[in-house]
Amino acid sequence: MRAPLGDFDDVRPAPDCLELLTEPVAAAVRAWRGGVPAGEILYVDTDPAIADTAVFVEHHGPELLDASANCVIVAGKRGETTTLAACVVRSATRVDVNGVVRRELGSRKVRFAPMDTATGDTGMEYGGITPLGLPDGWPVLVDATVVDLPWVLVGSGRRRGKLLVPGKAFAELPGAVVLEGLGLEAG
């Protein structure tokens, strides 16, 4: 099977390789009921040693730079209440934590969640966190430009391997809120 973008040696429908995913991600793929069939969510094997964006793109294809997204976990605080949420933005952008995220969560202060919180609460590995399989009730804030992409490369829950997902599927994730301007141009 060939990937719709990028040059990968091992490409499989995610439902056919659940054992390569963390349990929360595998459970999300098993339970998938979106308008995009689960079989269109693809797993591509990747070497964690070349996970740095520049090296990854050089190895797997320059078109991946514009088609990659990051999923970062944030913690919004208002009074004694802390809300954890995921933010999905294109890799070439940064999350507008103090503007869009703060307003959407109704928080006074938002920060990136500590690594042990992000990995512990998601059951995923640092550097591989994905919006598929996040804990129930978490908001999943998705930049509108991600949804508009035909295919998006995101983490698989592990540092080894990535998922290729049709962009429109991100709008169907549990807790998904599509937002304009969530991802700001880096710089």
From TrEMBL:
Domain YbaK/aminoacyl-tRNA synthetase-associated: 65-169
Top-level taxon of the source organism: Bacteria
Transmembrane segments: none
InterPro entries, sorted: YbaK/aa-tRNA-synt-asso_dom_sf, YbaK/aa-tRNA-synth-assoc-dom
Listed GO MF terms: aminoacyl-tRNA deacylase activity; aminoacyl-tRNA ligase activity
Keywords in alphabetical order: Aminoacyl-tRNA synthetase, Ligase
Pfam families (alphabetical): tRNA_edit (PF04073)
Keyword Ligase appears in the UniProt entry: yes
Protein name (Swiss-Prot/TrEMBL): Prolyl-tRNA synthetase
Organism: Streptomyces showdoensis
